[in-house]
Amino acid sequence: MEIDYRLKVFYVAAKTLNFTKAASELFISQPAVSKNIQEMEHTVGTPLFERLGNRLALTKAGSVLYHHAQLIFEQYNLATYEINQVIGKENGSLFIGISTTISQYVIPKILAQFVASYPENEIKVYQYNSKKVEELLIRKEIHLGITEGLTDNRSLKFTPFLKDEIVLVTNAQNTFFQKENCTLMDLSTIPLVIREEGSGTRDIIEERLKQHGISIHRLKIEITLSSTESIKRYLKYSNAAAFVSIHAVNEEINNNELKIIDVSDFAIDRYFYITHMYGGLAGLPQKFFKYIQQHKNNIYT
User: What are phi and psi of 168, to 5 degrees?
Assistant: First the structure.
């Protein structure tokens, strides 16, 4: 089955709002993207894109067509999957948005096992912070998200996936802080490394500190970094400390590169969540949803 190619080009261009990125994703040239868009505009009888300075935007007609194109491709993918099941093939599409910590330290093994169990499928994984994953879900650009936090977004359904603990860690040879415990009052004296705003990890740290009457902005923030991996590397050359997922530092703790500082009367437990739009799942996304729940105990074995 093949869907109208001009609609596909329009859909990707509307999703990226960048003809260069659309060309790269479709493996065609930028002039070819422009040509297909012009033909689509001629067919519908009105412009679909407009230039706002250096930014590309959808016209009102373009927004209407993009909305329906999303629904068309969603139904097309589902129809393809169900037809393949009838004829003995299990092809399908699965687009997943995974927040940084989970993407790097939790999901790789189970994702590899799923791909081996369901080969010949189109599977794409996008790594973003939790807030961005939710945005992609709402725009229907991905089927599923796995995020580090639970929000009050009523458009999304959150299912607990895996328990996590956020711990305070520092360089195992830290000359500034040689103890393995501290109090909440001590936190104001320790140079800290934190994640960027929008990070699920940062959100829950801020919330738990706030519950104890502590504003993160009153702490001694040494630097803000955009990933747990960059934080871990930074700590190896610094006497700072950082709150990170225990899943992210198991290897460094076992290798005596990092150590945990126990904060008295303060713990940050949370769940990673599988999230998707309300209305249920079908096809390959549904299979993946069930698979990672059934096999989550194999993540580290």
Answer: -90, 120
